[in-house]
Every structure is written in C-alpha cells, then in structure tokens.
Amino acid sequence: MSQKYDCLVIGAGFAGAVTARELAERGGKNVLVLERRSHVGGNAYDRLDDAGVLIHQYGPHIFHTNSQRAYDYLSRFTAWRDYQHRVVANVHGTMMPVPFNLTSLELAYGPEKAARLEKKLVETYGAEKKVTILELRRSDDPEIKALADYVYENVFVHYTMKQWGQTPEEIDPNTTARVPVFLSRDDRYFQDTWQGIPAEGYTPVFDHMLDHPNITVELGVDASDRLSLDVSGLSLDGEPFTGAVVYTGAVDELFGCCFGRLPYRTLDFKFETHPVEWFQPRGTVNYTVSEDYTRITEFKYFSGQDLPDRTTIVKEYSRAYTGAAEETPYYAIINEANNALYAKYRALADALPDFHLLGRLAEYKYYNMDAIVVRALELADRLLG
Ligand code: FAD
C-alpha cells in the first residue's frame, strides 16, 4: 500500500482513542487521528483552571462500570482515585439524597411517618430494592401512592423539564415510570463494582493511550477539510484512501446535514471560583424545584485537591442545540422521528467502503464512558479479525 496510513480515526474522545490504540498496538497499523478541537479527550477533557482546580471543561465525568473489560483496559493507562459519587437534590433548601432513598424519606416526612412508611415499603418490596414510582403508584395503600407523587413532583418533573425543555405532558411516560425509590441507606449515586476518577485526571489517560509509535495525532483539524466521501471511494488530502475509517463525529455533519439536523440538547456551563474550602455538601447538587440551572458540581470532590482557600463549581443550563459553531451537541433527543432521520444518515455511511460509525455522536445515542470503551474494543476485534 503506497498510502502513508493504514487507518484513519476521526475524533480523539474515548471512541477514537481506544480504537486508534488497538489498531496501532494489536493490529500493527499506522493510524492517523484527526481531532477538530485543540486537545484530545473529547468531552472527558479536563484541565487546571486559573485557580489551580482540575475542572471538567465539558461537564462532570465520573467513571463507573460493571465491565471488567472496560476497567482493565483503562487501568493500563491510569491508576484510580477512589471516588463514590453522591448526589443530593435541593428541595426547598433541604438536601435529599438522589436516587430518593430511606434517608430522603426521613427528610421528607420526618422520623415517625418515615419509619412507618419504611416498614410498609420493605415488607412489600424487600430491603435494598429499587422500586419504580410506577410500581408504587400501583399500590392500594394511599400513603405509598402519595410517596410516588412526592418523588415525581419534588425530584423528577421540574428537573426533567429543565433538562429536556419539555412540558409535563411531553415527558415520556416510560421515563417517568422508571424513576426509582431506593429502599436503602446507601446514598451513592452508582452501585457499580468499579467507580473512580483517573488519579492524574482524564486528559493524561488520553495522552498515554495515544502515545504509540504507530499513531499520529493532528489537533485542530476538521476531518471535513481533509476527507472527501464518495460511494466509489474515499480520499484523504486529495489522494484515494483505501484503509478503514472510524468516524466518531456527528453523522449528520458528515453529509452536510442534507436531510436536516439531528436534534440535540446542548449545555451552557458557568464556572465560578469561590474563596471557601467547600461550596456544597456533595459533589453534585441537583436543583429539582427551583433555579434555572439543573445542577451544580464542585470539582474538588473528584480531584481530592487540598486547596483550603478556594474551590471551583459549575452550573449547568440546558437548552436546544442550534448547530452554531461554538455549541456542542451533548444529548441526542431519542424519539421515533429522530431515529428515522438518523437511519437515513446511517444508510449513507453504511454505503461507504470500510467506513465505521462509532460513539455517542456517530451513533446518535447516549453512552457512558465504559460502554464506549467496550464498543471501541469490540470494533477493533472485528476490524482485526
Ligand atoms: P466525544 O467525547 O464527544 O468525542 C468525539 C470527538 O470527536 C470530539 O473530541 C470531537 O471534537 C471530535 N470530532 C467530531 N467531529 C469531528 C470532525 N469532523 N473532525 C475532527 N474531529 C471531530 N459518562 C460516564 O461514564 N460518566 C459520567 O459521569 C458522564 N458524564 C457526562 C456528563 C455530560 C454533561 C455528558 C454530555 C456526557 C457524560 N458522559 C458520562 C458520557 C461521556 O461524555 C461519553 O461516553 C463520551 O464522551 C463518549 O466518547 P465519544 O468518543 O463517543 O465522544
């Protein structure tokens, strides 16, 4: 093969970085990675801010998984700082653990009524169980039904309206039905086997992963400026390219949004540094009945940095994505119409030779980091036979 690279990977987030590493290391391929931003890491990118706090530029990221493969793989590139994520909802000034649990029950109803309800709930559904509000609503007991309404109103509905820009009528009943009440005093947000934050932060994980003699990374390069697509073949910098292409960017952009834009929610982040040791009692506080932001996250909980006189927080504001260059599409809005639109783009991509869509943007799906790592490893398995 006369071309310089065997494989082309577009995007240096988890999808692109893991695939590039595997193709280079396991497959011995020469891999070119093109990344539009000025840094690697995709949305998991972190950096020190002016106050010296390690912030997550594109929103708070906590690694959690039950996948041995994802955990073992990333552990090749990082040690871990043990961190168990805890989230509370600010309900009219009271900080209630979410998912709503037995501690939240006590805070909502007071000790006496909570103890009575707890007994009923545990007798009916079992201790340490996650019960959905749909199941609670099916109960004949008016107190249990009322609990479902309490959780819906104080923890779920306003938060979801802010997050997705919906009215209560527009919220998918299936989503509402899945809202859990956790009959436990375990106030961790995730119960996964492995949870933590890379000991040096996320960006060094990507630096290590992409540091391989067979990998070339070019930053600040939009693939659309270098790659042309044609069913008869692809070209890179005007020369025919016959190797595998792994594309992790937005699939509609790849085809000039010819069928219209795929809808997304975007986020505006407002970072603030405060001259106090701690701003709030937990890593994340959700504002479920007040404020126009959805949540506040305080980064020192993640990094464990010892900075007694300052702390940095971020407030998240959710709104519709317009496609403007300075915006990031964060959350795909999954519904029938959007899935059908995605299928049209997918068909165009599938017609291209040795062209593979991977990741949250290319697949128009929400994936946690561990899921993307596993998917990238599986794609590499297939490509390398
Ligand atoms: P991305 O990280 O988005 O990477 C794609 C990369 O491709 C980007 O760097 C982009 O610049 C680049 N790119 C796109 N188009 C082009 C182009 N044309 N040319 C060149 N480069 C291009 N997951 C968890 O497990 N735990 C969490 O706590 C968590 N929190 C999250 C919080 C928020 C606010 C969000 C939005 C997501 C969160 N996630 C979390 C999910 C996590 O961000 C994703 O799993 C992960 O980013 C997926 O990696 P990716 O490579 O598919 O996409």
TrEMBL record:
Residues 155-366 form the UDP-galactopyranose mutase C-terminal domain. It comes from the Bacteria. It holds the Pfam family NAD_binding_8. InterPro entries: UDP-GALP_mutase (IPR004379), UDP-GalPyranose_mutase_C (IPR015899). Its EC number is 5.4.99.9. Its cofactor is FAD. Keywords: FAD, Flavoprotein, Isomerase. It is an enzyme of class 5 (isomerase). GO terms for molecular function: UDP-galactopyranose mutase activity. NCBIfam families: UDP-GALP_mutase. Belongs to the UDP-galactopyranose/dTDP-fucopyranose mutase family. This is UDP-galactopyranose mutase. It comes from Pseudoflavonifractor intestinihominis.
